[in-house]
């Protein structure tokens, strides 16, 4: 672990950071009260403590204040992915699934207009499929309280403590999964809750609070702002039904290099209770839960993410190899539990639509799946509690997704398809001639580094040379990784595309945005110098940063290393 500068070991005297009421301990004291959920919740203050990446770090309360809130969290998103597999591979059970529609809940796809456009189709008319999987810690039902504790937290806004983007290639021949650590500080756009109508202003906050700022749609919009990747759907998973699904899957082989016992220590109270001998063990039920919850023995939250990736890839291999979906009885139990546990975006808010979606996923081979974690570094504003993106490495990861480039090197090199840059088109036609088009040029070269002084004025001059006499530098800086032309409404799209064409920008640089009132050119970190926009080559297949800690679906030898204090 520890790649990208994120894993930090806590010494024996390290205090524990608060963890929003979650508890990863099976050793809680009888009658212990719930720790208040403070860190990152809108309107409340962050707690202190050791690094999020440290053993014993996170946001849990001290002894006697833990509530069991961490229980069953790690399996929620697994059930979401599994539900897609169920619905995609079991065509024979389609008629049965029709009556499961009543189990599903749905809500608006997005919480705001991120300005990220749908990718262009390839020559075969195919586009990538992106699904955001969200693990919610809601206590709004008796079932969730029973499974996760915290009965006094029923009215608290939920947090999205597990977030993972599933990307399926346009040709449906490979898939990638990217996790973002829950304590990562990001820019959150203005969001509106589709159920209550409440509006939330833009902010800079820990990413797991987005679920409380307008629901799953706000989490999706935040991811689009972070990645520049258009996301088709979201799925959230709560506690209910998770235990039954874990048991129904049967044993999943997992591996540790040393004997592991995740138990309380003087440096870090709590622990999942996982106790395994070195080597490979088939885990299910409570042991599977313990594996997915283990944090201390795997060094950090980042280590836990890798352990979850290993479990998920092993589960996929197990289900495929055993032809699991040919058993009606097993399938029925999984489908019922899965649909009860899911809430989905409205576009896939029926079993038939989920079935159709699953049919697109079923043929992706397990050995063409790659799972990674977004590279991070300690947050300079709060290094003991939060993380921020490792800008250069994260940018490389997002470019692979945007250009639909495989995370692995299997098969032949792909040809440019969805997401690939192409010269900006001049349709629709501009509403105004260049000389009458007002363009505000902002300096966005500070994305991840110091901005280039005077850059907005330089590029405004380039536009003036192309006939845009009303192009003017704006004093406002708007840090952005890639140069973009933003416009607020359909009537100005043609003007925005005209600006992009004049500067030789790619078509995907033109984006609609609710954050601007006219045509705005943001000169990004990818164009810090020169008079000609640099054409960027499509990244090579398999060029995933080492700091992303990739897990490949066909790696049957992958094993978790155990942190020394938790060996026995």
Quickly list its features.
23 strands; alpha/beta; 568 residues; disordered N terminus
Helix amount: 10-25%
Biggest β-sheet description: 8 strands, mixed
Unreliable stretches: 1-72, 85-92, 143-150, 412-423
> Over all CA atoms, what is the radius of gyration?
24 Å
> In which order are the strands of the major sheet placed?
1-14-9-2-3-4-15-23
SS class? alpha/beta
Overall spatial form = globular
Quote the distance from N terminus to C terminus. Answer: 20 Å
Q: How many beta-strand segments?
A: 23
Overall mean pLDDT: 75
What share of residues are in beta strands? Answer: 15-25%
Oligomer category: single chain
* Count, helices: 12
Would you give an account of this structure?
The chain is α/β, with parallel strands linked by helices and 568 residues long. Helix content is 24%, strand content 17%. The protein has helices spanning 76-89, 94-98, 142-148, 216-227, 242-249, 285-293, 301-321, 328-341, 351-361, 391-402, 455-465, 493-503; strands at residues 105-107, 129-136, 160-168, 175-179, 185-188, 191-192, 199-200, 203-206, 233-237, 252-256, 260-261, 275-276, 279-283, 342-345, 369-373, 376-378, 387-389, 439-444, 471-477, 484-487, 510-512, 519-524, 551-552. It has an eight-stranded mixed β-sheet. Strands 19-18-22-20-21 form a five-stranded mixed β-sheet. Helix 12 links the parallel strand 20 (484-487) and strand 21 (510-512). Helix 1 crosses helix 8 (328-341) and helix 5 crosses helix 6. The longest helix has 21 residues, at 301-321.
């Amino acid at each position: 672990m520890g790649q990208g500068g994120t894993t930090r070991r806590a010494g024996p005297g390290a205090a524990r950071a608060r963890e929003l009421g979650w508890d990863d301990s099976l050793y809680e004291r009888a009658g212990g009260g719930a720790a208040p959920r403070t860190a990152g919740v809108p309107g409340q203050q962050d707690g202190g403590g050791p690094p999020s990446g440290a053993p014993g770090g996170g946001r849990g309360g001290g002894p006697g204040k833990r509530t069991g809130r961490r229980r069953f969290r790690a399996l929620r998103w697994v059930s979401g992915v599994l539900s897609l597999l169920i619905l995609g591979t079991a065509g024979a059970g389609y008629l049965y699934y029709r009556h499961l529609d009543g189990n599903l809940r749905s809500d608006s796809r997005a919480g705001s207009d991120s300005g990220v456009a749908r990718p262009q189709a390839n020559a075969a008319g195919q586009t990538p499929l992106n699904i955001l999987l969200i693990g919610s810690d809601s206590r709004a039902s008796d079932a969730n309280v029973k499974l996760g504790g915290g009965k006094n937290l029923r009215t608290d806004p939920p947090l999205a403590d597990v977030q993972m983007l599933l990307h399926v290639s346009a040709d449906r021949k490979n898939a990638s999964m990217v996790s973002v650590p829950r304590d990562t500080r990001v820019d959150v756009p203005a969001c509106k809750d589709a159920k209550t109508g409440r509006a939330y202003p833009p902010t800079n906050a820990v990413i797991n609070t987005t679920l409380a700022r307008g629901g799953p749609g706000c989490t999706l919009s935040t991811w689009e702002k972070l990645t520049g990747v258009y996301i088709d759907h979201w799925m959230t998973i709560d506690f209910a039904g998770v235990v039954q699904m874990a048991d129904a899957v049967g044993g999943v082989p997992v591996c540790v290099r040393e004997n592991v016992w995740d138990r309380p220590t003087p440096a870090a109270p709590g622990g999942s209770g996982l106790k395994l001998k070195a080597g490979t063990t088939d885990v299910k039920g409570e042991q599977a839960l313990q594996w997915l919850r283990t944090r201390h023995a795997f060094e950090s939250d980042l280590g836990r993410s890798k352990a979850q990736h290993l479990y998920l890839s092993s589960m996929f291999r197990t289900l495929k190899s055993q032809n699991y979906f040919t058993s009606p009885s097993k399938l029925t139990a999984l489908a019922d539990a899965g649909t009860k546990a899911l809430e989905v975006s409205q576009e896939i808010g029926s079993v038939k639509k989920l079935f159709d979606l699953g049919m697109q996923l079923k043929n992706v081979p397990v050995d063409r799946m790659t799972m990674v974690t977004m590279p991070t570094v300690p947050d300079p504003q709060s290094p003991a509690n939060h993380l921020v993106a490792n800008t250069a490495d994260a940018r490389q990861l997002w470019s692979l997704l945007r250009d639909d480039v495989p995370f692995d090197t299997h098969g032949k090199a792909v040809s440019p398809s969805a997401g690939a840059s192409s010269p900006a088109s001049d349709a629709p036609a501009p509403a105004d001639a260049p000389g009458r088009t007002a363009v505000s040029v902002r300096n966005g070269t500070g994305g991840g580094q110091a901005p280039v002084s005077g850059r907005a004025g330089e590029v405004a001059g380039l536009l003036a040379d192309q006939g845009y006499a009303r192009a003017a530098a704006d004093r406002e800086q708007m840090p952005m990784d890639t140069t973009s032309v933003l416009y607020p409404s359909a009537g100005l799209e043609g003007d925005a595309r005209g600006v992009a064409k004049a500067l030789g920008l790619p078509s995907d640089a033109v984006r609609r945005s609710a954050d601007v009132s006219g045509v705005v050119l943001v000169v990004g970190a990818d164009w810090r110098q020169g008079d000609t926009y640099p054409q960027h080559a499509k990244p090579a297949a398999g060029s995933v940063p080492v700091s992303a800690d990739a897990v490949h679906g066909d790696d049957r030898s992958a094993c978790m290393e155990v942190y020394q204090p938790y060996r026995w």
